[in-house]
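RECORD TYPE: inverse folding
INPUT: structure tokens
STRUCTURE:
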């Protein structure tokens, strides 16, 4: 299990947005108030987060991206971010038809949870016509986010949705494919994601998302049902073409591969004082996992780097600000140690 032969690197496609990150003392009830403790402007969306995370894990890894931004200050901020990290952006479109997408990201200091409120802007204009994979030498295409892009979420030229059309384009030139989901209503996830499964080589999602894809209850009042996640991953794999399905949740992660026993790995024992916010942790997990897969690592080692990268990201308010090289992330993980077995 490794990246496509003769190709190297990643091409991300989809959401590029500005994150207006705010740390609050707690998430308030309606008609009440909470104090903003700190704030900063950062980047968000699967297109930018995974691209930046991969470049931070390995600055020498080729990374390109496809997306859309507005002709405004936020758009210029995101283009400058791509340039600073050495992300190829010839596939980025600058539009004057709508503002750049942005998300207000609230991290609760009390609970460690995050709440997002997004303004879609140009994200609703992104279509399969923006995606051209014919000139890339990348190995893995990472797409997202279904549920955030109006045109891509809609039927497209005989396909169930635009995501299927984009995945078919990627497969036609020999790219391996992965798609990132977002934790919207289960029925909406199912409607958008299930038609994509036959065109995916990998699927890295959380417990809520895999339950929605498979039509199973994976989260109970007691927390994540690990065995239900494994069964949901198996059902998703049976309905698609994936080599592997990885599912992450607060206590750990599971990996289901074809013709192999599932792998369970607990999360890391990160000291509470080192955790700032969970914004971007899922993207960081995916970046670590996909990097290891690209490099031909064993599945358990891919999971270990996924946990390490996610753990490194938890130390900052932004999505990627505290992600480090893959060697440094693994060193951090070694120092923290594993949590309770799952």
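DESIGNED SEQUENCE:
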């Amino acid at each position: 299990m490794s990246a496509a032969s003769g190709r190297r690197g990643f091409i991300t496609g989809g959401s590029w947005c500005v994150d207006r990150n705010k740390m609050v003392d707690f998430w308030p009830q309606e008609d009440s108030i909470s104090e903003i403790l700190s704030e900063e402007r950062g980047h968000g969306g699967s297109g930018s987060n995974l691209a930046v995370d991969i470049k931070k894990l390995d600055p020498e890894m080729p990374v390109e991206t496809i997306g859309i931004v507005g002709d405004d200050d936020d758009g210029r901020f995101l283009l400058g971010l791509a340039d600073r990290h050495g992300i190829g952006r010839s596939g980025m479109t600058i539009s004057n038809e709508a503002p750049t997408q942005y998300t207000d990201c609230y991290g609760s200091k009390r609970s460690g949870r995050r709440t997002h409120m997004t303004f879609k802007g140009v994200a609703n204009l992104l279509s399969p016509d923006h995606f051209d994979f014919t000139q890339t030498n990348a190995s893995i295409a990472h797409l997202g986010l279904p549920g955030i892009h109006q045109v891509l979420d809609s039927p497209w030229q005989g396909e169930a949705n635009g995501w299927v059309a984009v995945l078919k384009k990627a497969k036609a030139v020999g790219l391996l494919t992965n798609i990132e989901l977002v934790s919207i209503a289960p029925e909406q996830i199912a409607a958008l994601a299930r038609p994509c499964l036959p065109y995916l080589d990998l699927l890295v999602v959380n417990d809520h998302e895999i339950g929605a894809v498979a039509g199973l209850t994976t989260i109970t009042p007691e927390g994540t049902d690990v065995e239900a996640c494994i069964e949901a991953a198996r059902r998703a794999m049976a309905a698609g073409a994936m080599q592997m399905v990885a599912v992450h949740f607060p206590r750990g992660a599971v990996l289901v591969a074809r013709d192999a026993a599932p792998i369970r790995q607990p999360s890391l024992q990160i000291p509470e004082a080192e955790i700032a916010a969970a914004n971007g942790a899922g993207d960081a997990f995916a970046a670590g996992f996909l990097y290891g897969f690209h490099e031909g690592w064993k599945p358990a080692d891919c999971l270990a780097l996924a946990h390490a990268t996610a753990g490194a990201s938890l130390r900052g308010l932004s999505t990627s600000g505290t992600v480090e090289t893959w060697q440094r992330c693994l060193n951090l993980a070694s120092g923290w140690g594993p949590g309770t077995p799952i």
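NOTES: The two ends are 25 Å apart (CA to CA).
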